[in-house]
Amino acid sequence: MNSNTDKGLVRSLGLGFVVVVLISNVIGSGVYKKVAPMADQLGSSGWVLIAWVLGGLVTLLGALSNAEVAGLLADTGGEFAYFKKIYNRFVSFMYGWANFSVIQTGAIAALAYVFAQSLSSIVDMPVTLVGLQDFSIGGIFYPFRDFTTKLIAIILILTLTIYNTRSVKSSANLNKIILWLVGIGLSVIVIAGLTSGKADLAQSFDFTVPVDKPITISALFTAMLAAFWAYQGWPSVGFLGGEIKEPHKNLPKGILIGTLSIIGIYLIVNVTYLAILSIDQLKSVHAAGNQIAAIEAIKMIWGRGGVVFISVLILVTTLGCTHATIYGSARPYYAMAKEGLFFKSMAKLNSSHVPGNVMWFQCTWACLLVFSGTFDQLTDMAVFAVFIFFAASAIGVFILRKKMPNAHRPYKAWGYPVVPALFILFCIGLLLNTIITQPREAFMGMILMSSGIPLYLWFNRKNKDTEQ
Description:
globular
């Protein structure tokens, strides 16, 4: 390792980068795919839009709370570094392990899965391992089902991991290019969709509810679980705190600008889908399992040519979001290793000042998760797990106001103490509802996170032995 590598991470990234990375981390598969399960759950286009708005508002409440913590404690590793100062090393480690075991690696696997599905809608891929399609582990996991799709997803994860081990700057520039392409593509969908003869704006705001399926708080929470996958990723920019210039100022500002931008984008795009596709059509898309709502909407306008266009756009979007997630997610594990709470080899930077060993470790587990389930299983599991720590971060606002009352805060949570308190209550409600309505995903998420407890004890004992 050369001498430059020993200097650590370099602060070379400004406010524009924070906004770009946040939006790139968030806008991925959800904007194209999640409207279908939400329509199936609620049975009303108007209520689907309400679920998107509520999801955005809750996300904003969380972002407003998180921005105070991020501005005060800005450091590499995001919440891993924050939780160590707010709580203790155990909570900090459990957050980092949850990211590795289910949250961020699950997100990487799910995004790559949608990329592969989109590629398959453009190019006819051969069906492989047909004889093993029904092989299962405990009747829950079917590792060889849709094997070709999973293989493509793994190839994408491997390719982007190789790219991300090269340098920070090249990865940041790729983010910007992809984000521009995604912005142009989504604009084309909205303009073409709403100006076409197929669109009926009144249909997007129909609040008629099926007699046999009334809207309940539980149903709304379940639909919002899908929306939260689309909003998931906004805290990830905090992972890069050690590489951002003036992080105490640029982190909170970037989080607010990026989150508000995403809420607006999602509302406009989903109004377009709901104006083109009826609730019954969206239910059929959800029931099919291997279809994407955005592709079916554009097919209504442009036929086969539209399918190619939207599929390419989804390829570009999920490529960008997978890239951004791989790029940022490795940093907490690097920070953990520096603290002696992860494998020692993970604390090394390569010649490009990038934690290459961590990225390959992350890559290996994400590839294994690709085999573990479907897109919706992976996303629901990840959202359940991440909201545990969203609540912990919001609680941290109250704790830090007590612990560090005189510390300089570049940004103070708007609406304190009401805003953080409301967000915490919502997190608790979402978690309880998921345990009731999605027990398999909740259980698997808890099992994977709990597996970190014996690891923490082992790492902690090793640290004590070293000190002696």
